[in-house]
Amino acid sequence: MRLVKAILLRLLFGAFSLFFISFVTFVAGAFAPGDPATIIGGEKASQETIRVIRHNLGLDQPWPQRYVLYVEHAAHGDFGVSYYGTHEPVKDILARTVPMTVKLATQAMVLASAFGIVFGTLAAVYQRKFADKSILTLSTLGVTTPNFVLGPILVYIFCQRLDRLPLTWSTTLVAPEIVYFILPVTILAARPAALITRLTRASMIDTLDQEFIRTAVAKGVPRGRLLFRHALRNAILPVITTIGTSFGFLLTGSFVIERYFLMPGLGSAVIEGIQQTNMPVVQAGVFVTGAMFIFLNLVVDILLPVLDPRIRESQI
Amino acid sequence: MSERTRFTFRGKDPLYVFGIVFLVLLLLFAVFGPSARNAMVHPPNQANFFSVYDPVSGPHEAPGGKYLLGTDEQGRDVISRLAAGARISLIVGFVVEILALVVGVTVGVLAVYAPRWVSMVLMRFTDGMFAFPDILLAVLIIGTIPPTKMANLPMGKLLPVIIALSVTAWPSVARLVKAQVATLKDREFVIGAKASGASTFYIVTRHILPQLTGILLAVSMIDIAGTILAESTLSFLGIGVQAPEPSWGSMINSAREDMSSYPVGLVWPCLILSLTIFALNFVGDGLRAAVDPKNK
């Protein structure tokens, strides 16, 4: 019963976070420069047209009503229309750009987790040996090197010196899609991979020190089984939490990567939106990114007691 | 607890020493670089298309000779721009950190000592701020503040970035301070002070906050690194410090645009930015180890 209560509490917190970001994006929209009605109606629109547009957008209502309206529309995926060009609905822009960003972030997360867990375990097993020291040094570099510094270095090596990988995304792909994702995903994954490596190492070292491991060794459990079934299953729990929080970094990091490789993702759309003061796109982009982050962390937090009987029992 | 933490070089990690030395040099570079003779002769924002034009590498002049580190794609002196960029990065880093500390410490202390409903509201608000990953909130705020409105104020070109990054920086300080104050609150010396009739304000400012200076100093170094990185990221994306003011991030962005003809141009801004981030992190880690009671 306590477990259900804990999960409900967590869901409530997720809902609160969602409310918070919706409120902040709403306030940002209200403060943003430019009157939406005038921008949509155009410079030449008559007073009457503008009043009609204002009414249709609900801008003539007091702000609590406008907020409720905003949330209601957002719940239906409706974030208004882009201020410029063909006044494309923001919903369509999201449908066009979000998959690219999610694909980038997910692939980077898979790569970072696989790399981090494997090398973190290796470093822990060979503690204070050469392998451990080189992995630690590399991960320190990985945590502190900005991705827009790592980007040019890898692009210079693989695109310009070796000429093996495409420099930027293009509308007509001449190679399988995965080829275009190799560099962006690698660059994006570098920092989370380094973080996860360090955390796995620390967590593994702690676990390997514990008595049940000594018992297992004494019982003659084979080394592979000892590491993966006994130690790693225990050590991996804090790592899973970090994977959740790293996802936020991956989403904002993909803003940089998309711009760098000219990939048409959510980040490109948001940055372009800021440069054109196209607030609905910025609002929607920030809202959707924040919502994805909240959702993933919610899943991780609910998953943990499912995976770990100790957490489960402490809550029952 | 009354003894003060001492910061010395003795027996210190070489990386920590490197960090300190690098930061001192960087500070000198940022303070004196922009007013040095070189920056007077070659101002950081002065484009120069005619002094040299190589059909292959464009208006770039190679390092050495008249320009110590060469020129960028508009023929501007790179070392002058690096110095001006260092000043901008450090100003943004320090101003944001000071604002974040003021707000964070206030919220953190109030979350412990204020009436329950006030602290509830403050802490839920702080929690809410963590719903925005990384620099996402800063991106939103910059989208909301029109840069043209601020252009006439002092530091107008930096103000949107400073505001945006301060808003994203304070919640982690508030969380840390709240946790620390909550544990210190029940310690004997605080109870003793209370028993002898000291006011809450006196206890907080004279007994509790002085205990936090060490850890806050250590965390500040790492936060400043984060802020400088965030400022560079925003400038790299073209929404940070407004052109033509040089920021390391925008320098990296313009250098990578003609990376194929002039790859050396990327080296300088990338190098100084990475080293700064390394140095601040090393110093932060070193200070944290020094104030960690486990190491005493």
What does this structure look like?
- The complex is a heterodimer of chains A (316) and B (296).
- Chain A is mainly α.
- Chain A has a domain of 218 residues: MetI-like (MetI-like fold).
- Chain A has 13 helices and no strands.
- The mean pLDDT of chain A is 81.
- Helix content of chain B is 66%, strand content 0%.
- Chain B is mainly alpha-helical.
- Chain B has eleven helices and no strands.
- At the A-B interface, helix 1, helix 7, helix 10, helix 11 and helix 12 of A face helix 4, helix 5, helix 9, helix 10 and helix 11 of B.
User: How much helical structure, as a percent, in the residues of chain B?
Assistant: 55-70%
Kindly identify the CATH topology of chain B: MetI-like fold
Report the structural category of chain B.
Answer: mainly alpha
Question: What is the top-level CATH class of the domain at 97-314 in chain A?
Answer: Mainly Alpha
Using the coordinates shown, work out and report the CATH topology of the domain at 97-314 in chain A.
MetI-like fold
The stretches of 5 or more residues of chain A where confidence is low (pLDDT under 50) are none
Distance between the termini of chain B: 12 Å
Mind telling me the CATH class of chain B? Mainly Alpha
Q: Summarize the helix and strand pattern of chain A as letters.
A: HHHHHHHHHHHHH
Which two chains form the greatest contact, residue counts included? A-B, 48 and 43 residues
How far apart the termini of chain A lie comes to 6 Å
Helix amount of chain A: over 70%
Shape of chain B: elongated
Please specify the SSE layout and strand pairing.
The complex is a heterodimer of chains A (316) and B (296).
Chain A: H1 2-31, H2 36-41, H3 47-57, H4 63-75, H5 90-125, H6 130-144, H7 147-161, H8 177-208, H9 211-219, H10 223-260, H11 266-275, H12 279-307, H13 309-315
Helix pairs in contact in A: 1-12, 5-6, 5-8, 5-10, 5-11, 5-12, 6-8, 7-8, 8-10, 10-11, 10-12, 11-12, 12-13
Chain B: H1 14-32, H2 37-41, H3 78-113, H4 116-129, H5 136-144, H6 147-150, H7 159-184, H8 188-195, H9 200-236, H10 248-257, H11 264-291
Helix pairs in contact in B: 1-3, 1-11, 3-4, 3-7, 3-9, 4-7, 5-7, 7-9, 8-9, 9-10, 9-11, 10-11
